[in-house]
């Protein structure tokens, strides 16, 4: 009798545990990235933060609960960490802090998250939005920050590879202290990825961008037109290529602000050690169109994703 009771209790616990596991999950993830860097006019240094690393080191938590009926609730909290000093970002979860409801209708996200402009640029940008990429150093992400506080975001389901995102940033807690409206349309299909994006701060003119990348096999080529004059960052174009040569991938990328006669250049090589870890060497030049002098940075680093 005792054995039967024990077996029943064990089966019940395992069943409940299985249901709970099926309904919700929490994932720990992150990036560790450091580089040796030499910048014009500065001594050689060990860098653990943007813009002298491929990516910003971070640690994050994301979780999802299956609500039934095709609905899911999820959250994301992400903090930036500098492995050079061990210091964390302020605010601590400055990279992401949000809550999402998703289903067949798409998704609605509330809180601090990436801007539609960032997601549009990263859809085709060759480095995967590396900290030193010339597109963002020249034009930011369609003229504005890569993240927003107090953002209300709606993203459609994918229709034949096309998604659209509309976001409104409330003035209250926003770093720009103004309200802002942003949207993007992104296409991903086969060798082609393309996007367009638009944003407008309530007290400034609009910014917009259209860009695309195509993988020809021997090389991937990306180009864009950028107008960030509403944010005071000029307008112009970007053009670059990514060329695989054995295990090494080479990137040459240029961003030209034709209004301010300013050219930013990136040369980068990556060597994978595994699916999650790679070595990189890069030389980035920021032109003097918006500054008094050229700034050159040369760096060698390693990035590990977990």
UniProtKB/TrEMBL annotation:
<dbReference type="GO" id="GO:0015288">
    <property type="term" value="F:porin activity"/>
</dbReference>
<dbReference type="InterPro" id="IPR033900">
    <property type="entry name" value="Gram_neg_porin_domain"/>
</dbReference>
<dbReference type="InterPro" id="IPR002299">
    <property type="entry name" value="Porin_Neis"/>
</dbReference>
<dbReference type="GO" id="GO:0046930">
    <property type="term" value="C:pore complex"/>
</dbReference>
<keyword id="KW-0626">Porin</keyword>
<dbReference type="InterPro" id="IPR023614">
    <property type="entry name" value="Porin_dom_sf"/>
</dbReference>
<dbReference type="GO" id="GO:0009279">
    <property type="term" value="C:cell outer membrane"/>
</dbReference>
<keyword id="KW-0998">Cell outer membrane</keyword>
<feature type="signal peptide">
    <location>
        <begin position="1"/>
        <end position="22"/>
    </location>
</feature>
<keyword id="KW-0813">Transport</keyword>
<dbReference type="Pfam" id="PF13609">
    <property type="entry name" value="Porin_4"/>
</dbReference>
<keyword id="KW-0406">Ion transport</keyword>
<comment type="subunit">
    <text>Homotrimer.</text>
</comment>
<dbReference type="GO" id="GO:0006811">
    <property type="term" value="P:monoatomic ion transport"/>
</dbReference>
<keyword id="KW-0732">Signal</keyword>
<keyword id="KW-1134">Transmembrane beta strand</keyword>
<keyword id="KW-0812">Transmembrane</keyword>
<protein>
    <submittedName>
        <fullName>Porin</fullName>
    </submittedName>
</protein>
<keyword id="KW-0472">Membrane</keyword>
<dbReference type="InterPro" id="IPR050298">
    <property type="entry name" value="Gram-neg_bact_OMP"/>
</dbReference>
<feature type="domain" description="Porin">
    <location>
        <begin position="9"/>
        <end position="286"/>
    </location>
</feature>
